[in-house]
Amino acid sequence: MIMKRLLTAALCAVLCAGPAMAMPQDDDWELAEDLAQQLTMASVRYEGGQAIIAQCQRGRLVVLITGLPQGEEFLRLAATRSDGRRAAQIWVPVAVAGTYRSATPGREARFMRGGGAYVVRSAAGAPVAVSGTFDLPAQSANLDRVLTACGWALEDDRDLLGDADVTLSGARRQRGGPPYRIPSVPEREVSCLVREMRLHDCRADHPPSQDTPNTKSLVRAVEGERIYVARDTDPATAEGRVFRVIASDQLLVMVSR
Questions:
Q1: Are the beta carbons of 60 and 150 closer than 8 angstroms?
Q2: How far apart are the first and last CA of the chain?
Q3: To which H or E segment does residue 144 belong?
Q4: Collapsing DSSP states into helix, strand and coil, what is residue 39?
Q5: What's the pTM?
Q6: Which of 45, 80, 98, 152 could make an S-S bridge to 106, C-beta 3.0–4.6 Å?
Q7: Cα angle value 178/133/159 (rounded, 5°)
Q8: Beta partners for residue 180, in sequence order
Q9: 20 three-class SS
């Protein structure tokens, strides 16, 4: 319920262009701030009605894309930016129709730094077909302000590593069960490196949360755990790649891409 109100407020602040908050920028993300609400937000709006929004409010980072085809399941998108770098991204539908929230907001916000063409496409046969190119501002100082306000690093070496297409459950992987559900209100994000089919060097992706008891417990729970690839897949393809774990206080979710 709280997340729904915050998301709706963020969308209104951007799409309604509230003059008290919005500050247009020359070739940078539009900046909006409200000290009373502990809110820092950067956005880009497009003629077709779409918008990309990065918001930090009370220490929580949210990245949204609006104006996409409506769906009830999360989107798996192949993203490319202007320098040719690629990433597999997961976007989760929220209460506002056609609006999706990033499952890994810190990494996705960093992916959008630097400007140029941001291209997203869903796989052939996906329940919701998405194909679009967003022209991002050349400057990203205001996007950086959002990341910094929430304590996220502006750069992370693990962003450059590919995601491991693995799971912690071998039996589930073999029978091709339904995808894991992403928490509606994620609290913790942990990433691990795959070495010899086990998870190593697990750590919080959000530096300020690394010393919290819940995050420490999550890191301990997954460190050293065995992981599995799909049948007829060479395990060597996962070596050295990143596996991310997303959790809320109510639900633990292992995210493989």
A1: yes
A2: 28
A3: helix 141-149
A4: strand
A5: 0.81
A6: 152
A7: 60
A8: none
A9: coil
Burial (CB count <10 Å: 0-12, 13-18, 19+), residue 112:
buried
Hey, what are 128's tokens? 């919701």
Backbone CA torsion sign across 245, 248, 251, 257: negative
Amino acid at 118: Y
Residue 112: closest CA among 91, 137, 130: 137
CB contact at 8 A, 209 and 188: yes
Element (H, E) at 217: helix 213-222
Instruction: Tell me how far apart the alpha carbons of residues 50 and 248 are, in angstroms, rounded to a whole number.
Output: 29
- Ranges of the chain whose pLDDT falls below 50: 1-8, 15-24, 171-186, 250-254, 256-257
Joined together, the tokens standing for residue 122 give 């869903």
Task: Give strand pairing partners of 253.
Answer: 246
Six-digit token pair at 248? 């809320």
How far is 248 from 187, CA to CA, in rounded Å? 5
* CA 7/CA 256 separation, integer angstroms: 26
Residues 62, 13 contacting (CB under 8 angstroms):
no
CA 14/CA 31 separation, integer angstroms: 9
**Tell me, what's the pLDDT at 13?**
53
Instruction: Identify the sign of the CA torsion 203, 151, 113, 254.
Output: positive
Cβ(137)–Cβ(23) under 8 Å? Answer: no
- Strand pairing report for 242-247 and 252-255: antiparallel
pLDDT at 180: 46
In this structure, what token pair is assigned to residue 140? Answer: 């990203």
Q: What is the structure's pLDDT at 213?
A: 87
For residue 172, the one-letter residue type is: R
